[in-house]
């Protein structure tokens, strides 16, 4: 069967040309590109190598129209500028590429509407979707799951399979660390009100506080950004405690900046703990003690779970896959010391609003 004519006047190789050269059926060549998991790995590799040498190229969009198999998945994130997403993206893409899938990246820009509209369009082409730190409502997520196989990352939604970080155990570990340093009064800087992970972290803090007889104070909500942390600095010092745990590392880093500008010493005056162990937490002074989430492994696990779902597996929807955390102790935490007689003056800052109804990770 003749192929189309290329730019040099020669016919482009067809799937049948590749099949003859590889000594396999055309259907096997098709599966090697469209459903590589169903072809022997050695055979699939040989077919791809021969196809590359011959200059054969597939058309994933045309293939999707013919058989709804595009070998493409989508990863939706809330904010591409958030360092939390970097390693998740890398882990997810690596897992997809290993089995011949292409990953589309959808940036919701902190908007549930934009995220929903983008995924509605992507769902026409991709075989499945991973939602990482989605801003969509549970109802919207369940509706999306009816269109395409779907995995939710770091959020539990009834009836939808998910992969979550075990922040419940991690927060207990952070509290135990601070308690061991002599801190008995701890402030929690909360993230967005509708954030599933924020609720889990605060609940774990309260349970640990009861167990060890600690006093807990909650401030916020704050945007999950460095500006949110700067905004929290004067709120915190007006009702200061000897230790603070922030919703995420960005808030913690912003807090460090705000307190430093006001002359508050970390960890001499206050110990600070963040969450996620994003890039840069070991580069600031003092280095930030934080709960390390295996972000690259999270992305990889989510995509592997999605590909299994696409292949017909039935993952549990009543209990999320839980990934453990570990506490990374750096210089921002130390033993409790006597409090200052008076708090330093905190510069006046403009108010920073928290987007309403936006779940965050």
UniProtKB/TrEMBL annotation:
> Which portions of the sequence form the region Disordered?
334-361
One GO molecular-function annotation for this sequence?
A: transcription cis-regulatory region binding
Q: Which residues form the HTH lacI-type domain?
A: 13-67
Alphabetic keyword roster: DNA-binding, Repressor, Transcription, Transcription regulation
Q: Highest taxon of the source?
A: Bacteria
Compositional bias, Pro residues, is annotated for 344-353
- By its UniProt entry, which PROSITE patterns does this protein fall under? HTH_LACI_2
PANTHER family to which the protein is assigned, alphabetical = HTH-TYPE TRANSCRIPTIONAL REPRESSOR PURR-RELATED, LACI-RELATED TRANSCRIPTIONAL REPRESSOR
This protein is called LacI family transcriptional regulator
């Amino acid at each position: 069967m003749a192929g189309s004519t290329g730019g040099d006047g020669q016919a482009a190789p067809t799937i049948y040309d590749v099949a003859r050269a590889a000594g396999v059926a055309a259907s096997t060549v098709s599966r090697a590109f469209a459903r590589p998991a169903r072809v022997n790995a050695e055979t699939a590799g040989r077919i791809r190598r021969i196809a590359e040498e011959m200059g054969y190229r597939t058309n994933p969009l045309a293939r999707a129209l013919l058989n709804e198999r595009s070998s493409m998945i989508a990863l939706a994130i809330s904010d591409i500028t958030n360092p939390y997403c970097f390693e998740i993206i890398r882990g997810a893409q690596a897992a997809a590429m290993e089995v011949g899938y292409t990953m589309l990246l959808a940036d919701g820009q902190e908007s549930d509407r934009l995220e929903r509209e983008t995924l509605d369009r992507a769902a026409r082409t991709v075989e499945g979707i991973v939602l990482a730190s989605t801003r969509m409502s549970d109802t919207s997520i369940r509706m999306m799951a009816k269109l395409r196989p779907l995995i939710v990352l770091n959020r539990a939604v009834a009836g939808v399979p998910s992969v979550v970080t075990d922040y419940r155990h991690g927060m207990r570990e952070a509290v135990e660390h601070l308690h061991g340093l002599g801190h008995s009064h701890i402030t929690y800087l909360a993230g967005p009100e509708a954030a599933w992970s924020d609720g889990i972290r605060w609940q774990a803090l309260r349970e640990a506080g009861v167990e060890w007889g600690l006093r807990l104070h909650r401030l916020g909500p704050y945007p999950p950004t460095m500006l949110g942390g700067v905004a929290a600095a004067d709120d915190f010092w007006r009702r200061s405690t000897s230790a603070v745990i922030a919703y995420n590392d960005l808030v913690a880093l912003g807090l460090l900046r705000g307190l430093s500008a006001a002359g508050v010493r970390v960890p001499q005056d206050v110990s600070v703990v963040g969450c996620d162990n994003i890039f840069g937490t070991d580069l600031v002074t003092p280095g930030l003690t934080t709960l390390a989430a295996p972000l690259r492994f999270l992305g990889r696990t989510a995509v592997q779970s999605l590909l299994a779902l696409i292949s017909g597996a039935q993952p549990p929807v009543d209990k999320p896959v839980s990934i453990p955390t570990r506490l990374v102790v750096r210089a921002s935490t130390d033993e409790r010391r006597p409090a200052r007689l008076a708090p330093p003056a905190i510069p006046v800052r403009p108010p920073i609003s928290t987007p309403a109804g936006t779940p965050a990770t």
